[in-house]
Amino acid sequence: MSRRMTYGVGAHEPIFHRMRTGNATAEEWRRWEYETSQENLDVLCELGVTRVQIACTKGFGLECEKPVIERAARFAEAAAARGIATNVYVQGFPIYYETFLLEVPEAEGWLGRDLHGDTIPWGGQTFRRWIDPTREEFHEYQRKLIRYVLDQLTPAQIDMDNTVPPPCWTGSGRESFRDYLRRKFADIDPVREFGIPSFDAVDLPHFDLIYWPRDAYRIVKDPLLQEWARWRSKVISDFLADIRERIRQIAPGAAFGSGAGCDALRTNHLFHHGVDLEERLGVLDAVGMEESGWRPGAFEGGGDRQIVMDERIAHRRRTPENVQVRISTDSRWMKIRSLYGLSGHGGFWGEVDRPAKLVALAHGLTFSQEPTYLGTLGPLAAARGMFDDIADLIEWCNAHIGVLEGRDERVAPIAVWRGTSTTGFIRHRPVWEACAVEQMLYENHLPFTILLDGGLERFLAGRRLLILPGTACVSDRQVGIITEFVAAGGSLLLAGEAGTRDERTRLRQKYAFEQLFGGGMPSLEFFGPPHWVPELDLSAMPESLSADYGRGKVALVKRIVPPVELDLTRDPYMPERQVMPKDILPPANEADIMTRIHALLGESLRAEGPRWTLCEYWKRGHDLVVCCANLHKSRPGGPLTLHLGPLRAEAATVHHLFEPDPRTVPVKDGKVTIEKVERFCAVEVNRALGGEVE
Fold first, then answer.
1. Are residues 614 and 526 in the same domain?
2. Using CA atoms, how far apart are residues 1 and 4, in angstroms rounded to an integer?
3. Which of 15-29, 573-587, 589-603 has the lowest mean pLDDT?
């Protein structure tokens, strides 16, 4: 067979880092030497590895790291001769000052500074310090470093880590921020938007102890504070775009990737970390996200658990009446980035036993647009037999690769809009609401995607239902786009405080979408003592409402109700509050919201089955392919009933993991019944889509 599954291994930390951090074995130098040995290459070939990630730079300085880069080049040449592609790992903005400053003494002036003028360490690694990302001198240094790397080898991809620097308070940053404001708002009167006549005296924001960490703000109302977050994102995006362009000039075949941060969909990421997700998706060939709190699986526990971020259990009574199952998936980011032409997934992240590995792989086969690449499955220092516990899955995938490859796009008649201003500037609650509504759709097996702000213009066409899960901040332009969508026949579900503010978080006197309900909606603002400033008042709003508008429909559900009290515990290492994985459950009023959704959708593609069996719906040419992953290690994943809705077919072909031959299943009354899903299955319905995504 010429077409086979692909997968990789990696070791991105250089030996200097391993020894300095202490993240090493007593035989670490021996392992370092083995990684690039001919013996290891022989083992990688025997294992069928097709891609390797290897260390190039980590911020020690070019002169210190030249031997590491040259080591990577020698390895890449030897690996290429065996048909193995090489990705290289390079560092972003932290440096190891003990070596870097010996090479570039003037870089002392490039270091980022905190509010008190101190250098900023990389977490607990005191020997690493962040560079001020506005320093052009460091940008030039990075260009020189990348050029040296590409002079030694042409990798398949360059992965740059640590491109989400913390806020810095420097003179360079202050001038960069002022210049950003002058350029962006050159054509407006700053008094009307910001209340000041010019930006010439604007400083970087300083916070007192009450408003630190920054999530002490319930709502970030100051428009300049909002722009401070957006400026930070643009500084890094411009840097990354420049590096990508230079890589393309030198090595056109090499891709450039970086991360968007950690757990960005569970926090006010734009304000806390200065990353506009859509901006980053637009300047890179690959964008990862570390989502360790959302690893795929089904987890059982009591409803009275007290859990901190790493989910160590402090108190737990396990009795039949309080056992619940929490379903976890990190496929949200897969849905988002595939809209921008980016695919892939990371393989294993902490899975060590066979059941956990099979869950992770089944999840990847279901949700990845490129399921024939399984991701990184092990360390670069390989051992014979290290894939023995998943060899049967790889063998099955090779034998059934035809059903896995060729995915064009997701079939997603439903879109959830995560508004950037809402999730960036309103603390916690709307982030949880987006997570909870998405979780409800996952567990009810409905086909959906997730839109960012630009997606309203680029990716809304062809959807049947748009959901605003507490998306409070909506600009007049966005109101217009959504109104046109409904008038043309789309359906709209407004939930929670959706549409109550403009894009600057300013309270709207009138509901943004009142015209869709025929007008006459109550005022949203309340002026009360002692400061007599406008506050949101939803008391007069109806609990629910529905109406027809143009050729479409609209419904309102006033509340998205948490099933448990939300945990606002701060993690001691990442002090900004995140939505805890244990809180990501469907809303308590799920039944009411789902009733509204079904009424708005009408006859639709969907599935019924256990909540822990998640489904993704794919277009492959004119065919519909529905992939299903049972995320529970010990419970059955069926029976599962696939409702084809408006699609027509006489039979479906079901491919079950580990079964050698597919089964033909009849379509009865528009339904396909699958009695079991042990771990993964793919359901092919040929010619069901007629060339169009429904």
1. no
2. 7
3. 573-587
Angle between helical axes of 62-81 and 136-152 (0-180°, round to 10): 30
Find the mean pLDDT for residues 449-455.
96
**What tokens were used for 285?**
């060939």
* Assigned token pair, 117: 């003028």
By the 10 Å C-beta count (0-12 exposed, 13-18 middle, 19+ buried), 515 is classed as middle
Question: For residues 572 and 194, which has the higher predicted lDDT (pLDDT)?
Answer: 194
In a 10 Å sphere around its CB, with 0-12 CB exposed, 13-18 middle and 19+ buried, how is residue 57 labelled?
buried
Q: What is the pLDDT of residues 605-638, one digit of tens each?
A: 999 999 999 999 999 999 999 999 999 999 999 9
Does a structural domain hold residue 550? yes
The neighbouring-strand residues paired with 685 are 624
Find how far residue 503's CA is from the centre of its chain: 22
What angle do helix axes 62-81 and 38-47 make, rounded to 10 degrees? Answer: 50
Q: State the Cα–Cα distance between residues 20 and 161, nearest whole angstrom.
A: 18
Both 531 and 504 in one domain: the answer is yes
Are the beta carbons of 54 and 72 closer than 8 angstroms? yes
- The amino acid at 171: G
pLDDT on residue 306:
38
Task: Tell whether 569 and 643 lie within a shared domain.
Answer: no
Strand intervals (E) in 406-500: 409-410, 414-417, 448-451, 465-469, 491-495
Q: At 665, is the secondary structure helix, strand, or coil?
A: strand
Instruction: Tell me, yes or no, if the pTM score tops 0.85.
Output: yes
Q: Which residue has the tokens 């009695």?
A: 675
> Is 622 part of a structural domain of the chain?
yes
**CA torsion 344→350→355→358, rounded to 10°?**
10
Give the mean pLDDT of 653-666.
Answer: 97
Q: Over 49-114, what HEC string results? A: CCEEEEECCCCCCHHHHHHHHHHHHHHHHHHHHCCCEEEEEEECCEEEHHHHHHHCHHHHHHECEC
Express each pLDDT in 547-556 by its tens digit.
999 999 999 9
Same domain, residue pair 535 and 563: yes
Task: Name the E strands within 170-312.
Answer: 255-262, 286-290, 297-302, 306-307
Distance CA 674, CA 683 (A): 9
Please say whether the dihedral angle defined by the alpha carbons of residues 645, 646, 651 and 656, taken in this order, is positive or negative.
Answer: negative
Distance, in Å, from the CA atom of 167 to the CA atom of 237, rounded to the nearest integer, reads 15
Using alpha carbons, select from 219, 38, 249 the residue that is nearest to residue 143: 249
Confidence of residue 343 (pLDDT cuts 50, 70, 90): confident
Is the Cβ–Cβ distance between 619 and 610 less than 8 Å? Answer: no
Asked whether residue 648 falls in the same domain as residue 526, the answer is no
Between CA 273 and CA 330 the distance in angstroms is 20
> Which amino acid appears at position 126 of this protein?
T
Residues forming a β-bridge with 443: none
Element (H, E) at 235: helix 223-250
Sequence-distant (6+) residues with CB within 8 A of 93 are 112, 130, 131, 133, 138, 162, 163, 165
